Amino acid sequence: MQKSSLITDGNKARKKQSPIDITNEITDQDSMLKASKLQFSYTIGDLKTIEVTGEGFSCKTDNGCTSELTASHLPDVYKLWEFHAHWGTEKDCGSEHLINGKGFSAEVKQ
C-alpha cells in the first residue's frame, strides 16, 4: 500500500476535492501499511438509508451508529457514517479517482 505525502494549500476552500490522480511522484511506500490489519464491525440495523442508482449506491447511518472501522496503523476507532460505491459500463471508467492515470471499473469510499 501507499500513502500520499502530498500536502497542498491549493484547495483551502475545499471546492475541488475530486477527482484526483494518485501518482508515484506524490506517494511514498510505507512498509507498515503492507502488514496492516483492517477490521470492519457492523451492527445490524445501523444503516438508516440506502439509495440505489443506476451507477452505484449510497448508505447512511445516524448519530447512534455503533458500527466501526479499525486498522492497526490508525490511531483511533472510526464510526461508520456513510459509504458509497459507483461503477461504470467499461472496465476503466467507473472510478472517480485515478492511479498513475489509470481508471478502474468501480470505487468504494467511506
From TrEMBL:
UniProt lineage: Eukaryota, Metazoa, Ecdysozoa, Nematoda, Chromadorea
Family under the similarity heading: Belongs to the alpha-carbonic anhydrase family.
Known EC number: 4.2.1.1
Organism of origin: Brugia pahangi
GO cellular component: cytoplasm
Stated name of the protein: carbonic anhydrase
Boundaries of every Alpha-carbonic anhydrase domain copy: 1-110
Molecular function terms, GO-annotated: carbonate dehydratase activity; zinc ion binding
Record field: catalytic activity: hydrogencarbonate + H(+) = CO2 + H2O
PROSITE patterns: ALPHA_CA_2
UniProt keyword list: Lyase, Metal-binding, Zinc
Keyword set includes Metal-binding: yes
Cofactor(s) of this protein: Zn(2+)
